[in-house]
Design a protein that fits this description.
By secondary structure, the chain is α+β, with helices and mostly antiparallel strands. It has a domain of about 170 residues. It has five helices and nine strands. A five-stranded antiparallel sheet has the order 2-3-4-5-7, covered by helices on one side.
Amino acid sequence: MIRLLIPTLVSFAFMACNSASQRAPASEPTQFLLSSNDFDLEAVIGLIKGNKIKDAADLEKQINAGNAINNVDMDHDGKIDYIKVKENRNGSNMTFDFLAIPSSSQNEAQGKTVASITFSQNQAANNTQIQGGYPNYVQGYNQNYYNTYMPHQGLSFGDALFLAWIFSPGRSMYYHPYAPVVYIQRPVIIHQDLQARRSFFRKDQAIAEVKPQPKPAPTLRNSSGTVRPFERRPAPTQAKPAPRSFFNQSRSFSRPRSFGRRR
């Protein structure tokens, strides 16, 4: 009786573990690496919309200038890490990733993306869409997403310096090597001082106001080109094979062996 129960109990335990693993969300990290409050993406987009930035080099300089935009400490050594701007292109879309380089190692190869901004030019609507957000290992990534537009109508070259630089014909992709000897390491700012310094910086620079919103669900396009919300589909169930019978068996069976001589 005990020998019969053991395989049954093992089978139930395996099914329970398998069911629990299926319920656990694969996209959610078990531990966040940092908080969205450590990098003020709202101020970065506000500087661009407020025409305070002329190019990516100027943006990288502003982020690391000690104005409280950057308070990232990936390696937890009590010092603010340097933020490097890295450009990526996908067709006409321009994406700028903000990589935190650990201050303890100062190794550019160990840089980790803390936020990103994508610029998409829409000729039909005569505007540029700006989308900004954090990766899913940043706490608050799903509540701090930015989606704003800059209309082209009525804008001169001097009114949109960053956009004019981004979409200038023949522009090479931005790359600036990390120079640790130039960067002055600063201690991490405590929370109470951080908010006060950021408020002062926004008022002093008169940057454009940008409000966060919840991150939208991913979208997929069907065969007709219509965008629809992404929805998880259940895994396809494999049809059970039909019970074998004489009629669905192969006819290429061998003749039963005869143990006696046929007369």
